[in-house]
Amino acid sequence: MPFHTCGPNEAMVVSGCCLRKPQLIPGGRVFVWPGLQKLQRISLNTMTLQIQSDRVYTQLGVAITVTGIAQVKIQGQNVEMLQAACQQFLGKTEKDIQRIAQETLEGHQRAIMGNMTVEEIYKDRKKFSKAVFEVASSDLVNMGISVVSYTIKDVKDDEGYLHALGMTRTAQVKRDARIGEAEARRDAGIKESLAEEQRMASRYSNDIQIAQAQRDFELKQAAFDQEVQAKKAQSELAYALQAAKTKQAIKEEQMQIAVIERAQEIQVQEQEIVRRERELDATIRKPAEAEKYRLEKLAEANRNRTVYEAQAKAQAVQMKGEAEAFAIEAKAKAEAEQMAKKAAAFKEYQDAALVDMVLEMLPKVAAEIAAPLSQAKKITMVSVGKGDVGAAKLTGEILEVMERMPSMVEGITGVNISKAMKSSQRRI
Fold it and tell me: What is the mean predicted confidence (pLDDT) over 126-147?
C-alpha cells in the first residue's frame, strides 16, 4: 500500500525520488511511491541501561565498583537530533543502539569516577549522578540520543574500604555519644552540687535567723524580767487587788472559752442531727419508699394476674359450656333419631317390638332387684323347717318376683307378654 502509518513511539524515514533530503515523520502517516521511494523505521522508545563500571580506581587510587541506571531515548521532537540519530542508527537494531549508548555512558562514568574520591561518590551521590548526566548528555546529543535520567544503583568495593568508612563513622558516633553522656553527667553533677550548696546556704541562713530570733527573745525576756523585778516592789501592796482582777479576767476568759466550746458542741450536735437525718433517710425512708413501690407493683401485678385469670376462666367456662351444649344438642339429636327409629319399628312390628323391649329390660330389672342383696354385708335367715334354705331360698324369692313381672307389665301397660310371645311364634 502507498500509505504507511506509525505510532508516537516510532519515526518513519522516507528517502528516494523527488526528495532532496530524507523526510522524517515522528508518529503519523506518509505516502510512499512504490519502487521509487524507500521507507525505514526507527524506534523512539525509552531504553533502560544498566551501567556497571568494575574496579575503577578513584582519585586517591581506591578501586570501587559503581552500578548506575540510565534512561535514554532517541529524541523525536528535535528534527536535528532525529536526523543525527537516523544518520547514526538507521538500519540498526534496538540492541545495537543500547550497546552504543551503554558503552558511551560507561566511559563517561569511569572518567567521572577517576576524578572523584570514594568519599565524594559515596556521600554525595547526587553530585556524581549530576556530573555523569551532564557529561554523557553533551556527548550523546550529537548522536541524537537524550539522557532522560541517571541514578546510582550501587557502590561497592572488594577491599572493605567502604566498610571501614562505615566503621569509622560508627566509632565517631559512639564517641560523640559517650562524650555527650559524660558531659551530661558532668552538668548534672555540677547542677546537683550547686543545688546542694544553695540548700546548705539556705539552711545556714535559716539557722542564723533562728539564733538571732532566740537571742532577741532572750534579751527581751531579760528586759521584761528586769522591769518586772523593778516594779515588783511597787506592786506588792496592790497584789491582792491585782490578783483578784487577774482571777476575774481568767474566769472571764474561761467563761468565754466555755461559751465557745458550747457553741462548737451545739454546732457539732446540729451536724450530727443532720447526719442522722440523712442516715435515717438513706437507711429507712428510701428503702421504705422502694418497698412501698415494690409492693404497689406486686399488688398491681397480682390484680392484673387475677383479672387475666378470671377472664381466662370465664372464657374457658364459656367454651366448656358451648362444648357441652353442642354435645347435649348432638346427643339429643341422636337420641331423638333413635327414638324416631324405635317408634317406626314399634309401629311396624307392634307387639313383637314391645315384647323384644320388655325381654331386653328383664335382666336389668332382675339386677336391680338383686342389687340390695349384693350390698348387704350379713344376712340372717330363719327357717321353720319347710321349703328351701340358704342361697336357694334367696334365688327362689328373686325368681318369684320375676314371675310376677308379666302380670305387673300387663297391669301397667295393658300388654300381655305371654300372649304376645305366643302370637309372635304363630306368625313365624
Answer: 85
